[in-house]
C-alpha cells in the first residue's frame, strides 16, 4: 500500500459569517444544545481531532440594526465546550477567545477547568480583536492600536502558562504583572500536572500573526487559496519555525475548507453553486459591496448592476473594517468582470464572498485531500459545513472511509489520548511518499 501522511480534520461550528444556510429546511438551531451535541458526535464518529467554536463578544450592527449574520442568544463558547465534554469521549474541544478583551486569571481558569474536566482535550484559539464596537462591552472601551494587539496576546499566553504552572493557592509564588499591557495578580487556580495545558491555535495570516503562531501555537488556522499558495504558506511557516528552533511538524497547518460532494463532478459543481447562492442573501450581497464602496448602498437592487458611484474613504457600517488596500482597483476589476459576463451585485458577491472549497465526487475529493497533505500544502483541514448540525455527515460517511482505505486517515482514536497527542499522529517519512493522484 502507498504510504501517505496522516490527514487531520477539525470540525468548525460556524457562527458569525455567511457560511451556514439558516433558511434551509434541514438547518438546526444555533442556540439549542442538541445542535452542538449532534455536531460534535458526528465529528467524533469521523475520528476528527477537534470541534472548533467561534466567539462573538458583541453582536454587530448595520445602520442601527443587528447584522443578519450574527446569532442573538448564542451560548458562551467555554460553556458549550464544557457541556460537550460530558457527551463526547475523544474529540478535542477548541474555543476562540479574545486575547484583547479577556483577562489572564479568568481565561486561564476557564480553559484549565475545561482541560481537566475533559481529560486534556481543551484548546484555545488565540485571537486579537480589532473592532471598537466590541470594546464598548468592556471597562477600558475602544480597542488596542494595531501595534499593541500581538504584544498583548503574547503577554496573555505567557501569563496563562505561568498560572497553569503554579500550584493553586500558593501565595508565595504569585503570578503578577502591573503596568504595561496587563495588570493582575493571582495564584494558580486549577491543579494540573506539568505540561498538561490546553493546545494553542492561532488564526493570524499577517507576518505578526505567523510569528506569533510559530512562537506559541500547536495549530495554525489559515486560508488555503490553492495548492501552490498553500505550499508557499506552509514553507514560510516551516522557515519561521526553524528560526525558533522548532521542527516543521511542531505546528500543524489546518486551513478552513468547505467540501461539496456529488455522485458526479457535474452534480457536485451544480450543488456548490446552489449552496453559494443560498449563503449570499440579497442583504449579505449589499453589505459586502458596502464594505468596498465605504458608503450606504441599501437603495441598490442586489440583482441589478454594480453601483456607478465611486468608493469613499469611510467605514460602511459599524463593526465592519475594510481590509482592502486599494478599493478603487478592486471596483475597477469588478466592473470589468460584470460588464464582460453580465453579472449583478449579488453575482459578484457570490463569486467573491465564499470560502475555499473542494468540489467533486467522494473519490475526487479524497484524492485532493491526500495530494494537499502529501504535497505539504497543509497538514489537514478545518471543515466548515453549510448546514448545522448535519453539514459534515456526508464527509464522515462518504469521504473518510476512502481516506481510511488508502491509509491516509485513522480508523480509531488512540486509547486515552489527549488533544496534543491526537495532533502528534506520526506521519509517513517524506521519502516514502508517492503521488496521490489528481485534484478534483
From TrEMBL:
FMN binds at residues 96, 150, 206. Residues 24-374 form the Luciferase-like domain. Keywords: Flavoprotein, FMN, Monooxygenase, Oxidoreductase. Its EC number is 1.14.-.-. It comes from Gulosibacter chungangensis. It is an enzyme of class 1 (oxidoreductase). One of its GO terms (molecular function) is monooxygenase activity. This is NtaA/DmoA family FMN-dependent monooxygenase. It holds the Pfam family Bac_luciferase. The keyword Protease does not apply. Belongs to the NtaA/SnaA/DszA monooxygenase family. The keyword Flavoprotein applies.
